Every structure is written in C-alpha cells, then in structure tokens.
What we know:
The protein is mainly β. It is built from no helices and 12 strands. The chain has strands at 4-5, 15-22, 29-34, 39-50, 53-63, 66-67, 71-73, 83-90, 94-99, 102-107, 117-122, 124-131. The strands form 2 sheets. Strands 1, 3, 4, 5, 6, 7 and 11 form a 7-stranded antiparallel sheet that branches. Strands 10-9-8-2-12 form a 5-stranded antiparallel sheet, with no helix packed on it. It is globular, with a radius of gyration of 13 Å.
Amino acid sequence: QGPVCTNLGLKPGQRLTVKGKVAPNAKSFVMNLGKDATLLGLHFNPRFDAHGDVNTIVCNSKKVEEWGAEHREAVFPFQKGGTAEITFAVNQNDVTVHLPGHQFTFPNRLNLSVFDYFDTQGDFTLQSISWE
C-alpha cells in the first residue's frame, strides 16, 4: 500500500497526474480514484502477470463490496523497472486515462460529482502527484 490522498476535491474539468517507478519484478499495480476506500469510481490495474492476465490493463468500479464489470485495455505502455506517468482527467460522465501514446475513457458508473480519494498499491513507487 502506497500513499493515500483524501479530500482531493477533483471535479469535472480537473486532472490528476501521477508519476512513479514500476518495480523491476512487477506483477501488477493499482491506482484507485473515488469518494473513499469503499466507493471507487475507477480501479486502474495494470497487470504484467497477475490473475491470469498478461500485459493487460484492467479497470473497474466498486460500490462498497460490489465490483462492477471489468473493462480491459489491450494497449500496455508499461515496462518493468521503467517510469510511468498517468493522468486521470475527470469529465462529467467519465474519466479519461492518459497513458504514454494512448488514452481511453472509463464511465463514471457511481455518478460521483467529486473524486476525493486516491491511493496506489502494488509494484509501483509514487514519485509525484499533482492536480489542476
């Protein structure tokens, strides 16, 4: 478990940019964005080799203990031992995830009007976090 941020106050039109380093022997890492630890609007989970997925980004949402349907992205711009910069842009109805050379959107299934919570877990060392 890496750092946990609360009271972010991210609203539509704002962005959160995360920079860090992927572990040399990484299996997977997670970034969660939501209202709090029980209401996750975006569970972002790049998997190098975990849960039967190889080089796949799995996204989901979580309402208390109930997970939604998994969304998979085939583009995988992460390297073991490399650095990563990921930007989450909050829109009215979804979140746009900006990766190196690729972007995709994930719907705001919980209809969150503000994203207050962010955490990182797994094989990723957070170096900087900024929002605008």
